[in-house]
Amino acid sequence: MARPSEDLFNYLDEYHLSFQTLLDNGLKSREFRYKEDAIKMIGKLDLESRKEVRVLSIGSGNGDVDLHFINALVDKYTKIHYTVVEPAKASIDEFKRLTKSKKDIWNGVNFIFRVQEVEDYLEEGGTSDKYDVIHACHSLYRCRDAENTLHYLYNMLSKEGMLLIRVIKGTHTY
């Protein structure tokens, strides 16, 4: 029998479509938690001397979580480098449409989209980059080596950087 993560890997677009249907039909409380997380996290970020804030978003899907982080960032900073690592091309395409629809308020954000797994991004040299904010919300389940991946992500933080990892273990969200 195939492991769930292997099944998920083979059907990423279908997974994201099904998950969006779930959101559209009643799972909106999740969105409020992300908005609160984003406002709190960015509020604590103290990078006033920086010319550019650098963000790495892992497993972003269609950008529905990211929009809260981006909105909080543009309220505080004028220049933002935002790297998105997401293995599902259809989700990246949706995220790109979202950025176009928000271009007037997100005009100081430079987006880089990478259609790949986070571990592939790290192996291809992503570990040489430094970020002020790294977030992965329910996206590290598929890592081949989650402990090593977390180690790399932590080491990619700038001195004042912040890392947010959200996962579900049993019935609890962390």
Number of strands: 7
| CATH topological fold name | Rossmann fold
How far apart are the termini? 29 Å
C-alpha Rg (nearest Å): 16 Å
Please state the second-level CATH architecture.
Answer: 3-Layer(aba) Sandwich
Strand order of the largest sheet: 3-2-1-4-5
Q: Can you tell me the CATH superfamily? A: Vaccinia Virus protein VP39
Task: Give the structural class.
Answer: alpha/beta
Describe the fold and architecture.
InterPro entries: SAM-dependent_MTases_sf. Pfam families: Methyltransf_23. This is Histamine N-methyltransferase-like. This protein has 174 residues and is of the alpha/beta class. The chain has a single domain, classed as Vaccinia Virus protein VP39 (Rossmann fold, 3-Layer(aba) Sandwich). Helix content is 44%, strand content 22%. The chain is built from seven helices and seven strands. The strands form two sheets. It has a five-stranded parallel sheet. Strands 6-7 form a two-stranded antiparallel ribbon. It is globular. The two termini are 29 Å apart.
